[in-house]
Design a protein that fits this description.
The complex is a heterodimer.
Chain A (H helix, E strand, L loop, with lengths): L1 H31 L6 H19 L7 H27 L7 H23 L14 E4 L2 E4 H23 L1 H11 L1 H6 L4 H26 L9 H14 L4 H21 L5 H15 L14
Antiparallel strand pairs in A: 1-2
Chain B lengths: L1 H8 L1 H18 L7 H26 L7 H18 L8 H25 L4 H20 L19 H20 L1 H11 L1 H6 L4 H27 L9 H14 L4 H18 L9 H15 L33 E10 L2 E11 L4 E5 L6 H8 L7 E6 L2 E2 L5 H7 L1 E3 L12 H8 L8 H6 L2 H20 L15 H14 L4 E5 L7 H18 L2 E5 L3 H7 L2 E6 L2 E6 L1 H5 L2 H8 L1 H8 L6
Parallel strand pairs in B: 3-8, 3-9, 6-7, 7-8
Antiparallel strand pairs in B: 1-2, 1-4, 4-5, 9-10
Helix pairs in contact in B: 2-7, 3-7, 3-10, 3-11, 3-12, 4-5, 4-6, 4-10, 5-10, 7-8, 7-10, 8-10, 8-16, 11-12, 12-13, 16-18, 16-19, 18-19, 20-21, 23-24
Chain lengths: 299, 596
């Protein structure tokens, strides 16, 4: 029983990080119908910025709550900027071209961030202490790391903020309008370019937070660290129904739980296969994901 | 004769083999030249070409989106490698190697079928992520199986693939891809890419073709995997991650979707680019960064790929044909609908609809917007299945039949919102519709046999004739999306006629045309009926027009058939007038009583 609870705690914390990254995928998909494959690497950049800034300011040797917030903020700004630039350089010029083209530039961008990172800082992993998260809280045999608590609480806070932005602000309304029909939205006076840029920035900011949180739990940062979590988060987004904000959260949590349970009860080497098997099973039953809206083509 | 033909059809291959062998013996293996390193790269290029050209069949030609090609490559590679490592140590004529390769390809094809069959009903990005997922699952399974060497991989695999062998497979791959592409099957693949609904309506089994493309592509990916293992001498699961699949997709898109030569060139460029960058000295460390920038820049500069959808080649002329003419006998009622009803949730779109269409009849279906006219067409062609009631076509119950099967029975249609294969020429649009009249198998298309040549010529003749009848001869080679609106509508009719129908369903053929054009169109419809002996069912808004051309009229309103009969009976029917003009108008002008 304790073991199960332990896996559930780990799963929720893992899933919260997936969900944060998945939100970036799903929002971009919502407005552009584009899989932004570089998003997982933005997450990596977030962790990197956090690591170097924490070292430069002495935060990593004397961790404090205020310092950690500062580091996170800097990382959010950095990633926001990168997200903005990625869209301007690699996607905007191709907006009227077939969607597959932007997918190739997305892959190119992803390679660029990975190899560029290896070139700039070297391929070796470095261990990070960005957040003051050494200890753990014990409930009987159950141990909940401080990192887990921080991860779940900050993810929940970010999602609440996102929910507010998407459903209760003018910009959020514009985002939803663009995702329903960009052409009509522009006729109604919505500045599509601005909305799309904003969406990229917003998604990248969330990825930065995810990067910082991830490094608190798995303190091993290298230029390829975004590859697998990025892919898993994308799977989570599709699982929940891509383009759907609550779907991404649900998908992330589900995926995190499934992975931790399999790691715990079967073997961690089967973890990656489980994520994809779950995805395939769900898509075969519900072709547009758990919360996605099915679209029938009009004949 | 047949032997000679068979030999000729494989001529490029037979010429290539000795040439490759001579290069191998005299150049690659000659220590004086010191070209080992160059030939290693040339072989890498060859393997990349096999992968890109085969994936192009799925992603480029058929328009499906697979990013799991590395997974199939892994399946083929591992099966072949295990066979070779456990098989005879001595393989002088490389017969066993060939068998191992084929077994690997076969295993990959089987995996392709297993993956494709359930997942190809997903669309676009969902299909993409599922193929990616399957690729990753295959990798994880290999990593966790000791039989396949686990995470460490397999080694040593006998070095049996050399330059000549790899490039012989490259040539076969390109030949097969090119011949499939130029055959009626190639056009069927293309039609799936352009518009699935229209392709089904033209009698093409879209699901079948998607699965087929998947299987063929997986087979060649398996061969590439086997070659790669036998060339490098080892296999490791890490070389089959999704990153590898991405690289192959990049080759296909960069080459230009559907272009075989494009895929070949892109595979070459993307394989040697990182190698060339090695020579940069100081910057050599940054080579992968430069590679990724080059990928982005190439895509931005040439968004349609290096070659677009064109090819570098175009040879092999065709001879005049004999005509295999497919004929079907007509039964009394071509279409027989009894009380068909369809509901979408709570909405009854069409209720208790009955219709019999006799040979060479001209029937019109009219009614206000939203009356359910197009839904009737969708029922007749199997796009929707009726909730209740029965629909017989040529005396056969169509329940459970997919649209392409119904098209085979002899029902062809046009679409209200024109659904041409937009990126294909007018000529190709019509040729695709001849697809189900051909008998040539895919294997025959690849062999390039006599039947395929005859049939191709016959299809070309038929397509030219139909374009001529519709007054589109001058537009033969223009992309259908570039035709003016009226001509697009006529092209749709030509395409529908090319399927050799008994019944032609025309969905608002006159929509968006002016009065003079409408009159011409109605004359055209009559002449089509006379010339091709088809029955025509016509949906039209314009009452005057319908009155002039049709022999019988059905009026639908809110899914209910409110009247049917001869044109002049309909004209004076109060319920029809009410449906069109409103109750108030009908009362004021006809006093509620049925006029004479």
């Amino acid at each position: 029983m304790t073991e199960l609870l332990q896996h559930l705690v780990d799963g929720i914390s893992q899933g919260a990080i997936y969900a944060l990254i998945a939100l970036g995928y799903t929002m971009v998909y919502g407005v552009l119908q584009l899989i932004n494959f570089a998003h997982g690497d933005v997450f990596m950049v977030g962790a990197m910025i956090g690591y170097y800034f924490a070292r430069a300011t002495g935060e990593s040797s004397h961790p404090s709550v205020l310092g950690a917030l500062g580091v996170t903020l800097v990382s959010m700004i950095g990633c926001g900027l990168i997200g903005f630039l990625i869209e301007r350089i690699a996607y905007r010029p191709l907006r009227s071209a077939p969607r597959l083209n932007s997918l190739i530039t997305a892959i190119g961008m992803s390679f660029f961030l990975e190899y560029g990172g290896q070139f700039a800082v070297g391929p070796n992993p470095r261990s990070a202490t960005i957040l003051p998260t050494g200890g753990a809280v014990h409930f009987g045999g159950l141990s909940v790391g401080e990192a887990d608590v921080i991860i779940v609480l900050s993810s929940a806070a970010m999602m609440l903020i996102l929910q507010y932005i998407v459903f209760h602000t003018r910009m959020g309304t514009a985002m939803r309008a663009v995702s329903w029909n960009a052409q009509v939205a522009s006729l109604m006076g919505v500045n599509i370019d601005l909305v799309i840029s904003f969406t990229f920035v917003l998604g990248s900011v969330l990825a930065a937070v995810a990067g910082i949180l991830y490094s608190a739990k798995y303190p091993k940062i290298d230029p390829l660290m975004g590859l697998m979590p990025g892919l898993k988060a994308f799977v989570a987004a599709v699982l929940g129904g891509i383009g759907n904000v609550p779907g991404a959260m649900l998908g992330g949590l589900l995926l995190g739980l499934a992975e931790q349970l399999v790691s715990g009860y079967v073997s961690s080497s089967w973890k990656d296969a489980v994520a994809f098997s779950l995805l395939i099973l769900i898509l075969l039953v519900r072709p547009s994901g758990l919360l996605g809206r099915g679209t029938a083509e009009k004949v | 004769m047949n032997v000679a033909r068979a030999l000729r059809s494989w001529l490029p291959f037979f010429v290539a083999i000795p040439v490759l062998w001579v290069i191998e013996q005299k150049v690659a293996l000659n220590p004086d030249f010191g070209l080992e390193y160059l030939f290693v790269n040339i072989n890498h290029i060859g393997i990349a070409i096999i992968l890109a050209v085969s994936l192009n069949l799925v992603n480029g030609l058929t328009g499906q989106f697979s990013i799991g090609h590395a997974g199939f490559m892994a399946v083929g590679g591992y099966v072949a490698a295990v066979m070779m490592m456990r098989g005879p140590t001595d393989d002088p004529y490389r017969i066993f190697f060939l068998l191992s390769l084929l077994a690997g390809g076969g295993a990959a094809a089987l995996a392709g079928w297993l993956v494709g069959k359930p997942s190809l009903r997903l669309r676009g990005d969902y299909l993409a992520i599922v193929t990616l997922g399957f690729g990753e699952i295959i990798r994880v399974i290999i990593e966790n199986t000791q039989f396949f060497g686990g995470a460490i991989g397999l080694s040593p695999i006998p070095h049996r693939a050399d330059f000549a062998f790899i490039w012989a497979v490259v040539i076969i791959t390109i030949l097969v891809a090119k011949r499939l592409r130029d055959s009626t099957h190639g056009r069927a693949f293309l039609s799936v890419r352009e518009d699935e609904v229209a392709a089904e309506a033209m009698g093409i089994d879209t699901t079948g073709y998607k699965v087929m493309a998947f299987i063929i592509a997986a087979f060649f990916a398996g061969l590439a995997g086997g070659l790669s293992g036998a060339f490098e001498g080892n296999l490791a699961p890490q070389s089959f991650t999704f990153v590898r699949s991405f690289e192959i997709v990049a080759m296909v898109v960069l080459g230009g979707m559907g272009s075989i030569t494009g895929a070949t060139i892109a595979a070459t460029v993307l394989t040697i680019l990182p190698e060339l960058l090695r020579g940069l000295g100081e910057l050599a460390n940054a080579r992968m960064v430069i590679y990724s920038v080059a990928l982005i820049v190439l895509m931005l500069v040439r968004p349609r790929g290096l070659l677009g959808t064109r090819e570098l080649w175009d040879f092999f002329k065709r001879k005049a044909p004999k005509e295999p003419s497919p004929k079907r006998e007509a039964s009394e009622a071509l279409i027989d609908v009894r009380k068909a009803t369809i509901r979408f949730g709570g909405l009854t779109a069409v209720s208790e609809f009955s219709l019999q269409v006799k040979p060479r009849e001209l029937v019109a279906l009219i009614g206000p917007n939203g009356a359910g006219k197009t839904t009737v067409f969708n029922l007749l062609t199997g796009v929707y299945a009726p909730t209740e009631g029965r629909i017989n076509v040529m005396g056969r119950d169509t329940r459970g039949l997919s649209p392409h099967a119904i098209a085979h029975l002899g029902v062809a249609r046009t679409f209200q919102n024109i659904r041409l294969f937009r990126e294909l020429s007018a000529f190709d649009n019509v040729r695709i519709a001849c697809h189900h009249l051909t008998r040539e198998s895919m294997a025959a298309a690849v062999r390039h046999g006599e039947l395929s040549e005859q049939e191709e010529a016959w299809i070309a003749e038929r397509a030219n004739e139909l374009l001529d009848v519709m007054g589109l001869s001058a537009r033969r080679d223009e992309l259908s999306k570039n035709l003016p609106y009226g001509e697009q509508r006529r092209l749709e009719i030509a395409r529908a006629l090319a399927t050799g129908p008994q019944v032609l369903l025309l969905d608002e053929p006159a929509a968006g045309t002016n009065n003079r054009e409408k009159v011409e169109l109605m004359q055209l419809i009559r002449s089509i009926r006379d010339r091709f002996g088809v029955a025509v069912v016509l949906i039209e808004h314009d009452m005057k027009l319908v009155m002039g051309v049709s022999e019988r009229i059905l009026v639908l309103d809110h899914g209910v058939t409110i009247a049917q009969g001869l044109p002049r009976e309909i004209q004076s029917n109060p319920r029809v007038i009410e449906a069109y003009l409103g109750e108030k108008y009908a009362k004021e002008h006809f006093g509620g009583a049925a006029p004479a």
